[in-house]
Design brief:
The protein is of the alpha/beta class. The protein contains seven helices and five strands. It comes from Microbulbifer echini.
Length: 217
């Protein structure tokens, strides 16, 4: 059994744009990913750790427990051995409560990479591969989350390139979700169901062609 951890926020949690409802596992991209890899003949378990409002290293002034750095080492320890950790974070770093730009949030992701690699796993357990996924650029945020993301469209500019730079510096895998899917027109931040389907398949194809499972051959 090959184990993949998705460490992310509400985009991967599967919030239905314009609501507080959640897509079922089979329809959100981590579930699509698991199905695709299993249909490819692999025995894969995709473990979700996705929290609404999660930032990389910053606190949410209104809700506790939203810093991705808090408890990440224990999450890795809890689910090890892991073949790969998928990091898709940064969107909430650009909320109106923070004056962050792309480079700053990318450094937050870099911190997460270091925590994963230094996690206190049991002796002999492998350090997992890490795939950094650049989240979708925020476009015209609106609806019930519009006020939270005022100005985020400008603040997040250049984020995929900054994440690519971090990936190269730290020797991780990298995939830019913006090349394949787009945010929902209903809120400008999250994914519609058909985009979850596309993203799960894209990530599955990417992982099959990557070094993630080489050590199991």
């Amino acid at each position: 059994m090959e184990n993949i951890l998705v460490y992310s926020d509400s985009v991967s949690w599967g919030i239905i744009p314009g609501t507080r409802k959640r897509l079922p596992f089979s329809q959100r991209w981590p579930g699509v990913l698991e199905s695709c890899l299993n249909r490819d003949g692999r025995k894969v378990r995709v473990i979700e750790n996705c929290l609404n409002g999660r930032r990389t290293v910053w606190e949410d002034p209104f809700r506790a427990g939203r810093r991705a750095v808090d408890g990440l080492a224990q999450v890795i320890e809890m689910h090890s051995p892991l073949d790969c950790v998928l990091l898709m974070l940064g969107t909430n770093d650009f909320q109106d409560t923070h004056d962050n730009r792309a480079w700053m949030s990318a450094q937050g992701v870099a911190k997460l990479v270091s925590i994963i690699r230094e996690a206190p796993t049991e002796p002999g357990m492998p350090v997992p591969q890490i795939l950094i996924i650049a989240p979708l650029a925020i476009v015209d945020p609106k609806g019930m989350i519009g006020n939270k993301f005022t100005g985020a469209e400008q603040r997040c500019r250049g984020f995929p390139q900054e994440l690519d730079n971090v990936s190269r510096d730290l020797n991780t895998l990298f995939l830019d979700a913006n090349a394949w899917v787009k945010v929902s027109e209903r809120d400008g931040v999250h994914l519609d169901e058909d985009q979850h389907e596309i993203l799960g398949k894209v990530i599955g194809d990417f992982l099959v062609k990557s070094p993630v499972f080489d050590r199991k051959k």
